Amino acid sequence: MNNPGVKPLSLRTDDEGELTIRVTNDPSSGQVIVDFGKPIHWLAMPREQATEFALNILRRSAHRVISAEIPD
Questions:
Q1: Is the pLDDT of residue 5 over 80?
Q2: At 71, is the secondary structure helix, strand, or coil?
Q3: What is the DSSP string of 11-68?
Q4: Which of 15, 23, 38, 53 has the most CB atoms within 10 Å of its CB?
Q5: Could you tell me which of 51, 24, 28, 47 has the C-alpha nearest to residue 36?
Q6: Partners of residue 22 on adjacent β-strands
Q7: What is the Cα–Cα distance from 23 to 38, expressed in whole angstroms?
Q8: Residue 30, by phi and psi: left (phi above 0), alpha (psi -120 to 50) or beta?
């Protein structure tokens, strides 16, 4: 389902280009940290990269091996 509030990348004039994304965790607080290296207003990525991004967050947050089926 398309979000009517999101323009296709080809129509965006506010794309600032490449972004560094780091997913880590703070051992003292246990919080998962997603560091973009700069303030951002929006984020878009190919489906494969989004899957890897989500998996990186799960890897940092899971205390054990998890298995899940993702519905469409």
A1: no
A2: coil
A3: G-S--------EEEE-TTT--EEEE-SS--S-----HHHHHHHHHHHHHHH-SS----
A4: 23
A5: 24
A6: 35
A7: 14
A8: left
